[in-house]
Design goal:
Number of strands: 12
CATH superfamily: Malate/L-lactate/L-sulpholactate dehydrogenase, NADPH binding domain
CATH architecture: 2-Layer Sandwich
Strand content: 15-25%
Strand order of the largest sheet: 2-3-4-11-5-6-7
Distance between the termini: 6 Å
């Protein structure tokens, strides 16, 4: 039966591996925290699965393990940083902290980052600021990668360009994490490596024909991920992708037009203090009403009632903190290999499913 692992042990293991590979203690803690949070929430293609690629990026020099970002421009509620390819989780957490400080004083804060390394699962950043009463928005693109075709085209141009929002309520926050494409590169890679097909025609081959074969993305000439909405309504995903590009690489002033070839990210973070607009209870009244209306809606399938974005992830996190983390079958072998190479103990097993 599948094993379950202690969450704190997983975090400490990941942090130790990061430090041994050349990250500062602070960067290592931030990376380990965000990757572990990804798995706790069930985002298992964007959690500890990314640890080995991150460590490889440190070794190759594509990611820096220590250093400082550079502030390029700023106004009271706005900042533009050059991340110097420091670890994306470290930069994004710092950006949220900075934008929150701005929001406390000015009602909102905005930080954009050029030349960040990959930032992992956007959902992993949402719970803390949302529970503190802040609306948070995170957008991300990677100007070095192209695997999503524009609507009506056949040549890959965008990344999935994920978008995430954390929305406070009087209870659990609403946590939205979506992308401008029908699926992710992480899921496409996992299926490709397992020689499996997808459940739906989420991909286009090099001729622009829809298919359920994720391997087309890795062929030459490459196929692509379909924009959100597919053949019928992909103009919507196309529009969202352009919006994300504008708020990330556009505002950061650095992106695809510069011929970027280092794996990384352009990032946009916005934090809004709901109390800057009035009594937070008034905000909660509106959002709580919507939550109640949604979850009480008559479901199309009685076995699958309506749930809010983030509801399942938060429940999954609670269960895994209590009973142990259930990792995808691909993750632990990679962690054990890294532990053996670096001479550290494997994460602690605390039970079976």
């Amino acid at each position: 039966m599948p094993l379950r692992y202690d969450a704190a042990s997983l975090l400490n293991c990941a942090k130790t591996l990061c430090v041994k590979t050349g990250m500062s203690d602070t960067c290592a803690h931030d990376v380990a925290t965000v990757l572990t949070e990804g798995d706790l929430l069930g985002h298992d293609t964007h959690g500890l699965m990314l640890l080995k690629p991150y460590l490889n990026a440190i070794k190759s020099g594509d990611m820096l393990g220590d250093g400082e970002y550079k502030e390029l421009t700023s106004r009271p509620a706005i900042a533009n940083w050059d991340g110097s390819y420091l670890p994306g989780p470290h930069l994004t957490l710092r950006a949220i902290d900075t934008a929150t400080s701005m929001a406390k004083k000015y009602g909102t804060g905005n930080v954009v980052i050029r030349q960040s390394s990959h930032i992992a699962a956007l959902a992993a950043y949402l719970e803390k600021p949302s529970r503190q009463g802040y609306l948070v928005q995170i957008l991300c693109s990677d100007p070095s990668v192209a695997n999503v075709a524009p609507y009506g085209g056949t040549e890959p141009l965008f990344t999935p360009n994920p978008m995430a929002w954390g929305i406070p309520t009087s209870g659990d926050p609403i946590m939205i994490d979506i992308s401008a494409s029908t699926t992710t590169v992480g899921m496409s890679t996992r299926l490709h490596q397992a020689n499996k097909k997808g459940e739906h025609d989420w991909w286009l081959d090099a001729d622009g024909k829809p298919c359920n074969n994720p391997s087309v993305v890795f062929q030459n000439p490459p196929g692509s991920l379909q924009p959100l909405g597919g053949l019928d309504a992909g103009h919507k995903g196309f529009g969202l992708a352009l919006f994300v590009e504008a708020l990330t690489s556009g505002l950061a002033g650095h992106g695809r037009a510069d011929g970027v070839n280092t794996w990384g990210a352009s990032v946009s973070v916005q934090v809004t203090d709901i109390e800057a607009f009035g009594d937070k209870q008034s905000f909660f009244k509106q959002m709580d009403h919507l939550v109640e209306q949604c979850v009480s809606s008559n479901p199309t399938n009685a076995d699958k009632p309506v749930r809010l974005p983030g509801q399942r992830g938060l429940a999954y996190k609670k269960e895994q903190l209590e009973e142990g983390v259930l990792l995808h079958e691909d993750i632990m072998p990679a962690l054990q290999e890294l532990c053996a190479i670096n001479g550290i103990e494997n994460p602690e097993v605390i039970g079976q499913k």
